[in-house]
Structures are given as structure tokens and as C-alpha cells.
Specification:
- Helices cover 49% and strands 17% of the residues.
- The chain is built from twelve helices and eleven strands.
- It binds 1,3-dihydroxyacetonephosphate (13P).
Length: 291
């Protein structure tokens, strides 16, 4: 089916207390593994792309690959731009057919983040696609964005309320709640009270960033409290590499490249399927589509 905006499916997810996986693709094979995993379990899926990856391949080529794979898939798929600070890149993705984008103004002072998020909101509303916006500062490393422990900052509740007030159609809202990008050094300290307070007041689905390394219990608690979008990047990127090198270690003399592509695909798809089951989005494709 054609690429779809993620807003309606995320609202369905939040209302029905499951999470839609949002995986950061790397190339065609990784996008194929993500969409094949969703198809195998009849789950809605968000294929998201880090800015460096967009710049590496070009927005048009990425959109063409994902559109082609989504067209052949029986499940709803959204194509989303992850953590983008540059409005020009956002425009390029919109022009290339992205169905949602994230503006990340979290490094800006609140008023500036709000003003630019509102400008991008006007662009996405005009294009009929979804917007994700962030406040607070999510820790860890995502792409070129490095937020050290001493720089990470939970979202301020009053700012959350003020932030979303004039953007009622925001597809998903990303307040920093204590999770971090990359592999965790210890157990993530999630501010469940803050998340609960936010979702009691704000009905927009919440994005759970920093999914790699969270426990099943943490996923379940966050999803139960209103996180409709669950982001996984580091684990997927790591399996992308391991899929190749593990087979290389096993069969150092093999010269045929296609088994490597298959091994990589199998490793990534297995993880996608495991997360879909944990997030409870298996079997939800048709209901999410109808939403
Ligand atoms: P991880 O890299 O920790 O999986 O986080 C993904 C993410 O939140 C992308 O925005």
C-alpha cells in the first residue's frame, strides 16, 4: 500500500495501548528487513531515517526504496525523518515524499524551539504529513547528536503543556523522560511520574526514544502510560554489521556475497519481530489502517 502518515496509526496505538516500532533503516536491505518483519506479524511499521543516512543516499533514493517496499506490503508503513535540526533537510524530505518528519529543536532555548517547531508544523500541515517535536534533552548518541549525561535534561511539565497547545495535530510528541540513545551503561532511569503526568494532560501520542537496551517491563510500562511510537536504532545498526561479520567468522572463505545479505536480513528481521511482539503491535495492521 502507499506510504501513510503516522499520526492516525499512532493515535490508534495510544488509544489501544500498544506501541508501533520505529526502526532507523540504513540501506535497502535493512528497510526490507524492517518491512518484512512487520509483514510477517501483520503489524503497522514506521521506517525512520537518521539525517546522516538521508545525506549519504539522498532523500529521493531513500523514499523510492521505501515506497517500493511499502507498495508491495500488506501492512501500513510510514516513512519518517528522525531528529532533524535543519529545516532545509526537512523540506527536501517533504518534497521527496516522506510522510512524516521530526524537527529536533531540543538544543535551542524553549521559545526558539517552540517558534521553529511551529514553523515546521505549518509546513507539515500544508503537506498533509505528520510532525514529531522534542523538548528537554534526550541523552546519548544519535547520529551526529551527542548529549552527555550532564547535558541530558528531563522535559519540564509546564513547558510540555505550552509546547503542544498550538500544535494540536502533532503526530507524536517527544518529551525527554530519562531514556537515552545508544547502549545503556546501567539500567535506564525512566521518569514514569513525569510521563504519567504528561499523558494525563496531553492526548497526543508520546515517542519513546532510546529503545535499544530497555527491558520488556520498561517497554510495557511506557506503552501502558501512552507511548505509541517506540524507537529502535542502535540495535538495528549493530545487527546490520554483525549479520555480515558473524557469517564471515563462520565461513571465512566464502566468496559469494548474497548469503551475507541474507544473514544480515535474517538478523535484523528477527529483532524487528521480537520487538513487535513485545510492543504488542502484532496483528494490528488492519485496525491501525482503519484508524
Ligand atoms: P536507540 O539508538 O537507543 O535505539 O534510540 C533510537 C532513537 O530513539 C532514535 O531516535
Amino acid at each position: 500500500m502507499p506510504l501513510l502518515p503516522m499520526g492516525p496509526m499512532l493515535r490508534h496505538a495510544r488509544a489501544n495501548r500498544y506501541g508501533i516500532a520505529a526502526y532507523n533503516m540504513i540501506d535497502f536491505n535493512s528497510a526490507r528487513a524492517i518491512i518484512d518483519g512487520a509483514t510477517a506479524l501483520d503489524a503497522p511499521m514506521i521506517v525512520q531515517v537518521s539525517v546522516k543516512t538521508v545525506k549519504h543516499w539522498g532523500a529521493k533514493h531513500v523514499a523510492t526504496w521505501v515506497r517500493m517496499l511499502a507498495n508491495d506490503a500488506p501492512v501500513p508503513v510510514a516513512l519518517h525523518l528522525d531528529h532533524c535540526t535543519d529545516v532545509d533537510v526537512i523540506r527536501r524530505c517533504i518534497d521527496a515524499g516522506w510522510t512524516s518528519v521530526m524537527f529536533d529543536g531540543s538544543a535551542l532555548p524553549f521559545a526558539e524551539n517552540l517558534a521553529t517547531s511551529q514553523q515546521v508544523y505549518a509546513l507539515t500541515e500544508a503537506a498533509g504529513i505528520g510532525l514529531e517535536a522534542e523538548i528537554g534533552a534526550i541523552g546519548g548518541v544519535e547520529d551526529d547528536k551527542v548529549v552527555n549525561d550532564d547535558q541530558s535534561r528531563l522535559a519540564n511539565f509546564d513547558e510540555c503543556v505550552a509546547f503542544v497547545r498550538d500544535m494540536p495535530n502533532l503526530a507524536v510528541f517527544a518529551p525527554a523522560i530519562g531514556t537515552a540513545h545508544g547502549f545503556y551503561k546501567g539500567e535506564a532511569k525512566i521518569a514514569y511520574d513525569l510521563l504519567d503526568r504528561i499523558t494525563q494532560t496531553i492526548s497526543i501520542p508520546i515517542a519513546l526514544h532510546g529503545g535499544t537496551g530497555l527491558t520488556e517491563e520498561q517497554f510495557h510500562r511506557c506503552i501502558a502510560l501512552g507511548c505509541g511510537k517506540v524507537n529502535i536504532s542502535t540495535m538495528h545498526k549493530s545487527l546490520f554489521i554483525d549479520g555480515f561479520i558473524n557469517l564471515r567468522a563462520e565461513k571465512p572463505k566464502m566468496a559469494e556475497p548474497l548469503p551475507f545479505i541474507d544473514a544480515q536480513h535474517a538478523a535484523m528481521k528477527a529483532d524487528v519481530m521480537q520487538c513487535i511482539r513485545i510492543f504488542g503491535s502484532d496483528g494490528r495492521a488492519q485496525a491501525a489502517l482503519a484508524a
